[in-house]
Amino acid sequence: AERGKAVERVHERRAKYVAGAQSTYYETPVQMVRGWRHWLYDSAGRRYLDLINNVAVVGHSHPALTAAAARQMALLNTNSRFLYDAMGEYAERLADTLPEELHTFFFVNSGSEAVDLAVQLARVYTGRRSVVVIEGAYHGWTSDVFALDTLPHDRPRWREELDEHVHVAETPDPYRGRHGARVEPYLESVRRACAEAGPGGGVAAFVVEPLLGSQGGIVPPPGYLAGAYAAVREAGGVCIADEIQVGMGRTGSAFWAFEGQGATPDIVVAAKATGNGHPIGVVACRPEIAAGFGRRAGFFSSTGGGPVSCRVGTAVLDVLRDERLPENARTVGTHLGAELNALAARFPEIGAVYGEGLYRGVDIVEPGADKKPAPAAATQICERMFELGVVIQPTGVELNVLKIKPPLCFDNAAADYFLAQFTRVLEERAQSRMAMTRSVHRHPTTTQGCR
Ligand code: PMP
C-alpha cells in the first residue's frame, strides 16, 4: 500500500506540473525504477521483458557506458568550439560503418534535430524548399520536421495541415498497399510527388526510413529504395535516410538499414541508439552538401557532440562490436521471425508479420474481415501482455501493429518467453471468441441485440 501511495505521488506531481501532451504509456501509468539488459523493473520490484526500447540498443545500464560517461564527466564536458579528441574519435568510428562518400558529420542532441538539420542541408544545397515523404511516417517534432509528419497518431490533422512544400508519396507496403508487392507503381508515386514539387521550385529532399519503422517495420518491395533514390536524384533532390529507429545493427543484415535495401543515400540521420539513451543526434553527409551549408552559415550546437556525448557514442559502438550485437540481432531475429510467422499461420488475428532482425511488427486484424485493422484488439493484447510481464506497444497508421524492437542483447530465451506469453494471449482470445460464438448460437436474440 505504501508503494502504491508513492507511485500515486509521482503520478500526481507529474500531472500537476508536466504538460498533458507529454503522454505516458498505459491507462494506469507505470513507474519503472531500474533497467538491466532487456529487462525493466517497476517500483514494486516486478520484472518486465522490454520489447520497446530500441534506444537502449546495447541493453539498459550497460557498465561500459556508465564508466565512459563518468570518466569524461569527471574530466571535462564543454561545448564543441574547443578542440578535444572525443569528437574526431567518434566521427572516425562512425565513418568505419558508413560508405566513404558519407564521412562528413554534424553532431546534435536528438533525432528531430538531426532530421531538421538534414533537411536544412538539403535545402541550402539545392536552393529549393520542397520535401517528399511517404504516408504514415514520423520524423520528429521541430516545426520544420513536424510539417513532414504523416502518422495520424502523432499528427491527427496532417492532411488538413499539409504544407504546400510537402508532397506525400504512397507507402510501399506489400501487405496493405494498393499495389501489393509490385515496386513500379510505388516508384511512380515518388516520381509524381517530385513532379508536384516542380512548380514550387523543385524537390529539395526525399526523407524516408529505409525500413518503414513508424508503419510497424514494413520492408518495402525489393528495389524500392534504389528506385526511389534514382527518381529523386533525377528530379534534382537529395536523398535522406532516417536511420533513427532502424539503424545501428538492428536489422541484422547490415549495420545501416539502407545497406540491406541495396541503396546509398546522400545524408544519413541517426539518434536514439547512438547514445543508448544519452542524447546524441548524428548527421552524416556527402562533403559537398556540408560545404555548401558552411558557406551560408556557421553551425554550432552547445551540447551537440560534446565530449561526454562523443565518449558515450564511441562506447556504444565498442559494445555493439565487442558483443557482436548486430550478429545477435540476425540470429535471434531470424528465430523470432520464424516463430511469429508460425503464429500467424495459427491465429487469424495476425494479418502479417513485418520486419527484419530485431525490428518486427505484428499486424493485428479482425479475424475473417479481410485485413481489417483491429486497433482495439492490439491495445487489449498490449494490456494483457503487460499483466504477463511483457512491455509491448502498438504503432502504425491504424495503431494496430505490435512493434517489437528490444535492446539488441535480447537472446533466444527472452524471445521464447515473449512468444510463450503472446501465444497464451492469442489462445485466450481465440477461446473467448469461440465461447461468444457458442452463446450467440444458443441465444439468437442476443445476436440481434449485438447488431
Ligand atoms: N525519426 C524517427 C523515425 C523516429 O522514430 C523519431 C522518434 N520517435 C524521430 C525521428 C525523432 O527523434 P527524437 O525523438 O530523438 O527527436
UniProtKB/TrEMBL annotation:
Per its UniProt entry, which superkingdom is the organism in? Bacteria
Keyword flag Transferase: yes
**Domain Rhodanese as annotated: residue spans:** 83-150
Q: Name one GO molecular function term.
A: transaminase activity
Q: Which UniProt keywords apply?
A: Aminotransferase, Pyridoxal phosphate, Transferase
Family membership noted in the UniProt record: Belongs to the class-III pyridoxal-phosphate-dependent aminotransferase family.
Q: What is this protein called?
A: Aminotransferase
Recorded source organism is Streptomyces ureilyticus
Question: Which residues of the complete protein does this chain represent?
Answer: 561 to 1011 of 1011
